[in-house]
Amino acid sequence: MNNDRGQSLITKYVWVIDTIYRRRKISFKELNELWLRDEISRGVEIPKRTFDNWRQVIFDMFGINITNENRGEYRYYIEYEEDIHNNGVRSWLYNTLSVSNALAKSQGLKNRILLEYVPSGQEYLQPIIEAMKENRVLNITYHSYWKDEETSFDVQPYCVKLFRQRWYMVARSTYPYYFEQGPRVYALDRIHDLYATEEKFKMPKDWDAQNFFNGCFGIIADQRIEPQTVKLKVSAGQANYIRDLMLHESQEEIVKNEEYSIFKYYIRPTFDFIQEILLNGESMEVLEPLSLREEIAGIINRMNSKYTIYNT
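Request: output the structure for the sequence above.
Response:
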């Protein structure tokens, strides 16, 4: 199967998922009618045997089960359709391909569809994943913003994570001193060179990516900062955005009225979480814990001193 045909098939799989998901339940006849109206069909119906094969491939590729009522109109539907919204590789893959398909079919509107630049170092994502599959040590040349220098060293790649349009790698240095400190996070866009070595490593059986980032807001996994209950008071207008796009998976709305809402989290108040609070400006106020409230107040006071306007 060549790349063009492979890409065409994936486009068709995503079309089937999207169509059934939007219609909730649909007969094979109705599906074919919609298929023929779309240019993707090129005027050719989907044979029933082909459709059944696609259903199996869709399950294997995305973990999405398209099943049949087996009664009445024998309509097809997506079993456990809420899984499409869940986090995970297959959900992300489906959503990404779905958007890609929509954009690919809209070339005539390319000047009216504005995309965001993603400096995520994607050229290194594939070799990192390949190294993870084989538990192979990587040599990376990395530019640190903190030291403003470039160094080369060997790491054991544990996992990759996407956050705010940037890819990151969690890896453990093979150098004894840093190895003892445990895995660290590296931004792919700061990697200037990378290659897989001949050396292999054993992945720790007790290490889990989800546990590593447990309680974290984003990419900062500072295990020295314990998760704690945080309460944020958010203006009614801004609460709509926080409600629709949660700041963290532990988010719980405990108070809601016409003026404000109070959201509760169980989270590590790391630097990136503090930055997110400040990003919301006066629309968001830390109620608890007192230590975080005082830290935010200190930052605001220092900012205020920089912006003080003196009368001349």
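Residues 228-306 form a domain with the Alpha-Beta Plaits fold (CATH 3.30.70).
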